[in-house]
Design brief:
The chain has helices at residues 3-15, 26-59, 69-77, 80-83, 90-103, and strands spanning 64-67, 105-108. By secondary structure, it is mainly alpha-helical.
């Protein structure tokens, strides 16, 4: 029952790196968290718009494909500000973002499993293990 919630926390901590903030005050942390959550929701909305094209591409290939979230996050974070500036054409920027999302697809290979490595404990009480590297 809790698995979706736990994976959402994992996405926020590892992929979006929301634990890292630009300041130490409460207002700075809240603003960083809200901005990260907003961009994450925007990414999901644009991903949903691309589903039809991804399914069309997958039908002509051997594997099912999905959008690479790491690269889509990187392409979105550099364009999100231009999307909301009045002088820019938002529709063109949205089309550019969709094109970049569809350009960076990754195959879904069923039945792939590798054994998890046992982490070596370093000195210190607290450790954060991530298996994720940011794209840019």
């Amino acid at each position: 029952m809790r698995w979706k919630i736990e994976t959402a926390y994992g996405k926020q901590k590892n992929q979006l790196q929301m634990e890292i903030s630009s300041g130490h005050k409460v207002i700075c942390i809240e603003q960083d968290y809200a901005a990260g959550l907003f961009v994450s929701n925007l990414q999901c909305i644009i991903e949903k718009q691309c589903d039809h094209k991804v399914r069309e591409i997958s039908s002509r290939r051997q594997y099912e494909y999905k959008i690479n979230r790491n690269l889509s996050w990187a392409s979105l974070k550099n364009r999100v500000l231009r999307l909301f500036i009045r002088s820019s054409n938002s529709l063109e920027i949205l089309m550019e973002i969709e094109h970049l999302f569809i350009k960076n697809l990754e195959p879904i290979r069923a039945g792939r499993q590798t054994p998890r490595p046992k982490p070596k404990r370093k000195r210190g009480k607290y450790q954060t293990f991530t298996n994720y590297r940011r794209a840019i």
